[in-house]
Amino acid sequence: MSEHKKKDVFNFYSDDLFRQIVDNTFETTVLHADYKVVYINETGARLLGASSEELLGANVLDIFLEESKEAIRERVRCALEEQKAGELIEETIQSLNGTQYEIELYCHPFEFKGERAVLSVFRDISERKELQRQLKNKINEYSTPIVPLLDGISVIPLVGNIDEDKAGMLIENLPSQIKRYQDTRHIIVDFSGIYNIDEVVIEFLFKIEGIMKLLGISPIITGIRPELATNVVRMGRNLSNMRTESTVKKALISLQVK
């Protein structure tokens, strides 16, 4: 076989092998020029709920949520005009049937038929992210336990930082925890171990106090430092209707515990 023939055969099998490999990888691979899809592998087509042929010519921005489109448009511009690869980011996309997926996305400049294009590669991480959320939920649940002290009296010792995620988890989980202690009449919520003194903590303070009252529990808030009290007043909130004590010990004394 001549060298020319060998080269043709090599190119044929190489192209075919390359196509099979790319089509069957776990990652979605999309090549797009002027925001239009010129190639998408089978993995990506399945994820988006269409065939590769049906997706040719589709606008790549259409799969992104409205609030993300401007940032994605800027990434594409940098890849095309500045030849800059986009760093790995996490985004949410939507398939043709409306199913949303959380993905890791990477893109870089690519030349296609002599023109500038962008090669985007992303992986579905929805399952991993859900497991992370469940783990964080459990960590928050166990890191903020309800501790029974005496008959009808428990304490919740809050420790560390409370960000929006943790505040949301606590508000969601505490009612179910409270139900485990059906004889509990009073719960002391101690804020002395909280590091951050900000609006998130203040909103959490009022929400958790209100939830407990709705559940028939008499809450006592302890450990409110001067900075937190000052911020509460600055925000125009009123602590006068909230039962507070400086320490857990004083709260127990106020409940006539000897």
Account of the 3D structure:
- The protein is α/β, with parallel strands linked by helices.
- The chain has two domains: 122 residues, Beta-Lactamase (2-Layer Sandwich), CATH 3.30.450; 125 residues, STAS domain (Transcription Regulator spoIIAA, 2-Layer Sandwich), CATH 3.30.750.24.
- A five-stranded antiparallel sheet has the order 2-1-5-4-3, with helices on both faces. A five-stranded mixed sheet has the order 6-7-8-9-10.
- Strand 3 and strand 4 form a beta hairpin.
- It is elongated and about 85 Å long.
- The termini are far apart.
- The N terminus is likely disordered.
Largest sheet: 5 strands, antiparallel
The second-level CATH architecture of the largest domain is 2-Layer Sandwich
Helix percent band: 40-55%
CATH superfamily grouping of the largest domain = STAS domain
Alpha-beta classification: alpha/beta
Task: State which percent range the strand residues make up.
Answer: 25-35%
Order of helix and strand elements from N to C terminus: HEEHHHEEEHEEHEHEHEH
